Amino acid sequence: xxxxxxxxxGLFEVxxxxxxxxxxxxxxxxxxxxTVISMVISVVLLGLAVKTLPMGTAYAVWxxxxxxxxxxxxxxxxxxxxxxxxxxxIGLIVLGIAGLKLTA
Length: 104
Hints:
- InterPro entries: EmrE-like, Small_drug/metabolite_transptr, Small_multidrug_res.
- This is Guanidinium exporter.
- By secondary structure, the protein is mostly helical.
- It has helices at about 1-25, 30-50, 55-80, 85-104.
- About 85% of the residues lie in helices and about 0% in strands.
């Protein structure tokens, strides 16, 4: 269950990271509210996950999911570049996340 909570927390991290783009410096009320809600949910779920998972592993996996997800959303929806180097680096992050999960 803790791994599932951690995964969902990572997805909400993607939500708030992408949401920051749409808040326009927190000047737009609805995107700001949704971004802050995503932040709170993400951190609460992370907090629940670390009750049973090692803190360092959980935090690294949480930020890894957020990083990979945010980059992929940026590529797919926001027109960020999808260069071979960027995609290779994302692949390395995914390998690191998998390695941490396998050793936890």
